[in-house]
Each structure stands twice: as structure tokens, then as C-alpha cells.
Amino acid sequence: MDNGQPHLKRVLGRVDLIFFLIAAEVNLNRVPVVAGMGAAALFFWIAGFILFFLPQGIAVLELSSRFPQEGGIYKWNKTAFGDFHGFISGWNYWTNNIFYVPTLLFYIVGFAAFIGGSMTAGLSENPLFMAGASLLLLWFITWLNVRGFVVGKWVQTLGVGGTFFTTLIILCIGLVAIKMNGMATVMNSTSLLPVWGDWRAFALLGVVLLNYVGLELASVIGDEIKNPRRDIPVAVIVAGVATVSLYLIATFALQATIPASEIGVIDGILQGVKHAAEGIGWGWIVVPIAILMSLNAAGNTSAWLAGSSRIPFVIGIDRYLPSSFGRIHPRHSTPHVALVVQGFASSLFIVINTIGSSVHDMYMILLQTTIVLQLLPYLYMFGALIRIRRSPERFGAGEGFFRNSWICFLAGVVGIGMTLFGLVFAFYPSSGVNDIIGFEFKLLLGTLGFLIPAVLIYRWNASRNRVEVPATVEMVQD
Q1: Theoretical Cys-Cys bridge with 312: which of 12, 60, 258, 338, CB 3.0 to 4.6 Å?
Q2: pLDDT tens, 422-440?
Q3: Topology (CATH) of 14-465
Q4: Is the torsion defined by CA of 324, 325, 326, 330 positive or negative?
């Protein structure tokens, strides 16, 4: 019953949810980071799909069927391992976006500089300009997300449109370029395999895994989906197929137009498109693609800001964060406190990493820190899949998605192994990093700077509140 108090609203239908997941999953702007490793990038995409993305999909399908409520991965890990571990995983899941969102903003600002031509091209290498423009964009997007899914779902829909059209256009350009000039990147049986002796090449494995996270967001916003038990499985499967296909096509098309060794991490796709388009007389198409790429980044940013903010919202309801995190905006029905706090934290991190860093190193530090914090909750999630599936009645779980338990056990074991692999190699700087010591120091500092406060915050609130039965919030379907 609606008692006149603010409450979350069920506004997302099946199509909205599919677009939401595709917008969150597919970040074409990160393709150049992977494509730069050469033909072996295709090997990593496929390996990541089999060993990480499929196990993730199995975990989400199984656990979301048993626990379809708001909070998703936080609720799953809390149920399986207790309040402390649930809090740590939820904290990392939320705070990693403090690093991830700035990387998306760098893309958008870089594209804007690219659109301006020779007069503005140099701005993309200016850390002060990139930081200042990113801060303005950050707060504009934060304000949009305070308005809620009523606005956000259209931003995500536009982002998905930008994603599909960009991929289609660069594929066409790539095919024409191959026909006229041949494949720019060597593709043979030898080059398709990674260079096993170069351990720094495996640092990009974590980037591949990061590109494949996000299916669990459907359950994180479970109480804002009209029919979560029916729509989440369909959305996960459709978005999963779209994600893998788009990444493989975009990587192949980019490598067709420009040698892998010349692909830049910030503007790599536009760089390749411009090179190939001018060669076939299609130079005019670069600006429209830059606009479409900006839409892709905007949709990705909107999806993660909206989705991840629901984690501290639920933790605030459980009173392991200040209760203000559990407040709902009286007009827009959104967790506005969590969004604003995240905006301030991201702003601070952008400023800190501007000091003494090149744009490339600044970007890679942000990206690798995001990988570490994002993958830690997945260790818990795969463990929760095994533990809950083994004794569902012990955890009060509902009916699962899979009849055969061995599917869940296999997915959990493989997922844990691959996640650990990605975490270890996240601390190996890729070959493009110039200041290795500074890179390692900032990555370690950034990681510990969020893990240590998490432990202290949990212990403070647990001892102060002595929570036995979490507080509740009314979730009303309009």
C-alpha cells in the first residue's frame, strides 16, 4: 500500500531491462585497450567469454531466481557468508565506480576534442583540461541519475543505439578497407595466440573480464523491474549474446583498419576509423561516429551510476552505512544521497590522479584500480553460488533456475579461478605504462584506500547499531 512516503517504483519492462544491461555491458571505448595486444585480443575475448562470462551468466540466472529482490549481488553474498562479507563485497562493488566513471568521462571529453579537429585535438593530451571537463560532465550525469530511471532509461536506450550503429559502421569501413588495402593487423594461427613469455600482456586479461561484468545489475535493481522473475532471465540471455558479438565485431573491425601497435587507448576507435575512412573517401563519417561513441559512453555511465547506487542504498537500509544512504528522494524516488556521495568521491579521485600523471598513465591507473575492486565481489558471488546451491533450504532460497546442480558447481569453480587470475594480473602493468613504480604505488594506494575504510566503517556501525533484524523500506509497484 502506498502510504504517501517516498518509495522505489517499478518502471522497467523487459525491453527496458535488455537495453539497460547492454548499455552497462558494452563499452566500445575500452575495445582499443584490448585490441592493442594484436590478433591475440580475439583469443582473450573468447577465453574470457567461456571461462568468465558464461559462469557469471549461470550465477546470475540461478541466484536472481532464488533472490529477485533489490540489492542483488550484495544480498546474495550477505546471505551466503554473513553481514561482514556482504558489506565488503557491496562496498567494493559500489566504490569501484568511483574509478570507473572517470574513465568513461575521459572518453567523452576525448571525443569532444576529436570532433573539434586540429584546433582541439591537443586537448585530449592535456591532463588539466581532461580533468576539468570530466568534472563538469560527472556532475551533469549525476544530476540526471538523481532524476531516476524515468530519465535514465532513455539515456541508456540512446546509448545502445549509439553502440549498434557505431559497430555496424566501423564493420562496414573495415570490410571496405580490407578489400582495398588488406588486413592492417596480421591474422594467422600464430598471432591469434598470446605471447606466453610476455607476462605484461596478461595484465590486459583483467580488462577483458571487466568488459564482461554487469549481468548481475539486473538483480541489483530488482525492485524497480515490473516482473523481475520473468524478465531477468530473458534480459540476461539476450544481453549476453549481444555483448559477446559486439566486442568481437568491434575488435576485428578496428584491427582491420589500423595496425594493433598504433592503436591508442583513449581514441583508438576514432583513430582507426579516421585512418580508414579517409583512405576510402569517407572522411565525413568520422564526426557522426564520434557522436555515436559519446552516446555509447553516456549510456554506459548512466547504467552503472544508476545500478551501483542501489548497493549503498540497501546497505544504508541495513544500517551498515549511515541511514541517510537509505533515503529516497521525495520527488524522483531515487537513492540520491548515494549518488551525490559517489560524485564527490569521483571528483576527488580525478583531481588526485591528475597530479604528476600523463593522460595514458592516469587512464590506466583508473582502469586497473576499477578491475581490482570490481572483481573482488565476483569471488564472493561465485562462492555464494556454490554454497547456496548446495543447501538452498538453509538460506531460505526460492526455486532455482537450473535443475542440475553440477552446472552451478562447475560455473562457481571456473568463475573463482578466472577471477583470481584476473586479480593477480591486474597488478602487472601493461607494456604501455611509462612510470611503473608510480603505477604500482597509486594502484595499491587506491585499492587499500577503499578496503581499509570499509572494514572500519562496518565495525563502527555494527558495534553502534547492534543490528539483528535489518530495517525495511516499502517497495511499492505503481
Answers
A1: 338
A2: 888 777 765 555 666 766 7
A3: Amino acid/polyamine transporter I (1.20.1740)
A4: positive
